[in-house]
Amino acid sequence: MHPRLATLRRIARAPKGLIGLLLVGFMMILALFGAWLAPQDPYAQNFMATLQPPSAEHWFGTDQLGRDVFSRILLGARTSIGIGVGGVAVAFVIGVPLGLAAAYLRGTFDSLLMRGVDILLSFPDIVFALAIVAIMGPSTLNVILAVGIVSVPVFIRTTRAVAMSTLAEPFVEGSVSLGCSPLRVMGRHVLPNMGGILVTLCSLLFASTLLNASGLSFLGLGTQPPEPEWGTMLGESRSYIRTHPYMATFPGLFLALSALGFNLLGEELRNIYDPTSARRRRGQGLLARLLNGGRALPVPRETAAQARARAETVGDAAAIGRDLEISYLTDKGPLPAVRGVDFALRRGRTLAVVGESGSGKSTLLRAVATLLPRGQALVSGGSLRIGTEEVSALSGAQVQALRRQHIGVVFQDAASALNPVMTVGAQLAEAITSGRRMSPAEVRDRSIALLKAVQIADPESRLDAWPHQFSGGMKQRIVIAIALAQEPELLLADEPTSALDVTIQQQILTLLRQMQKERDMAMMLVTHDLGLVARYADDVAVIYAGRIVETGPVEEVFRRPRHPYTRALAASTPKLRHGGGTRMLPAIDGEPPMLGQLPPGCAFAPRCARSGGRAVCTTRAPELTRCGKADVACHFPDETESLHAA
Ligand SMILES: Nc1ncnc2c1ncn2[C@@H]1O[C@H](COP(=O)(O)OP(=O)(O)OP(=O)(O)O)[C@@H](O)[C@H]1O
């Protein structure tokens, strides 16, 4: 069955939806054909038959000029419904792009816009609309503009709020990490995912727009006589409301029924189109298709000269951080989350970044992914080179192109890393075609090859499947396929398996490792789990309170951990603890320091069993210094300490 017919059937199956559909359908027929259906001339005056009650000849009676009210109601539907639709369209066309822009750009634009919205929302709608019509003059067009403009703030606020939460979804970050243009991200991911909410908003605002417009017409500021419009007819009935109540009853009834119909229909549509609903969404691509007409311009890929320069300047490093500092911008000022970090991500090797929660691992990974949340965090010092490029020297578009060409990102939660309202094939195609033109057949072949590479069985038939039809492990494989779509040199994985069970965890990490080796990529793996580091990484960086406290090849660091924090972490990891056994594992006493409240000297000193309160530990931060094959930031790297059991 055609998707639209199926949607209609589903609406009709719910009682509220059926009533809404019938009412809206009825009003639309009136709006389109009312003029032809009118049994009498709606403009013909008859002073011999004024203010007649309903009768066989005049079903809804006659007005003060003897005109047939029924015929005027039928003809008036065109203007009344037209004003409602027009008002909502004006509000949509202005409000939605502004809301999206505010969500995307944040910063000053967002603050100014939101203050403006607050001011506008502090006026009652009708007063604001009255002021606009008073300035522009009474006419149907001006009423449409006025009722549309007063609804703009609601559209801006709702669109901004929903877009912000959608933009924070990992599948959008994934798309941004592929270097998709803002227009494409909005049209492809954000708008379709807020379609249900926008449809609901349109229907709710249709009702209030209709009523606001009728209010203006009632006051004589809207559609001008002799043109029939339900609000104007209500206004004209004011003087006769006690003696001839039917004059107000019929236009009022039609207004109420149309508002009710649109509300009921909107609610049912929301249930269907809401992507979070358990029911599968159909026909979801409309907004996306409308907005995705313009493709991102292809950005030239790296030239041979650039590739040579890269090889000469950075050797086998796909990314290098030097004294890197990253701060979050908070009300209390910038708070450093990553403090003076040095690292190199080398081709063919995996660097695992480990540490407790809040130590700055994800912040570091996001910085390398060039995905720090805009307006909330920034690289506040040091240098970050990706390939041959110093990231801070690039424009926004260049960073986007760099991300697309060099970086693949795999986030923690595969379920939310995939867009629930796009088929797997469509998401792969988007990743593959980002920044380059390919024929549909090439895209399909490449999609199939990628799915095969991540060991998805029967990839041809899986392209048309939806994310919810895959298990967690399969979804993560698809996320990896998407990350690999542009053949990145750098693969960044942030806790890629923490949402999966242990068996699947191993499969996914083995796959990542295999992909990384086969494609000679550099990989950064962020994890809490030292057991995984031991099995799947080449190098490790142990991070504490935003600083690397120990780093080196995995065998070296695990065979002989020198920093007391690394030793404590290793001792609290069952498989790494010397001798294993069933004894309760030691925990690290105390809490990591809060951002912006770092102790003087070594940040680990207050929890350190080795320091023993020695002055140098509490006054001077230790530098990373070479010890054997590793680098350790401890004043006493060769001492040992007794670990406290929990
Ligand atoms: N948007 C933000 N604004 C302010 N502070 C933030 C923000 N995001 C993270 N932080 C803080 O930055 C520090 C580092 O956070 P980050 O997420 O990088 O740690 P993590 O080691 O990855 O932790 P986890 O393992 O729990 O993800 C934490 O103290 C965190 O509270």
TrEMBL record:
Q: Which InterPro entries match?
A: AAA+_ATPase, ABC_Ni/Peptide_Import, ABC_transporter-like_ATP-bd, ABC_transporter-like_CS, MetI-like, MetI-like_sf, Oligopep_ABC_C, OppC_N
UniProt protein name:
Peptide/nickel transport system permease protein
Q: Where in the numbering of this chain does the ABC transporter domain appear? A: 321-570
Topology versus the membrane, per the UniProt entry? Peripheral membrane protein; Multi-pass membrane protein
Which PANTHER family does UniProt cross-reference here? DIPEPTIDE TRANSPORT ATP-BINDING PROTEIN DPPD (PTHR43297:SF2), OLIGOPEPTIDE TRANSPORT ATP-BINDING PROTEIN APPD (PTHR43297)
> Gene Ontology terms, cellular component aspect?
plasma membrane
What GO terms in the biological process aspect are recorded for it?
A: peptide transport; transmembrane transport
Similarity field: Belongs to the ABC transporter superfamily.
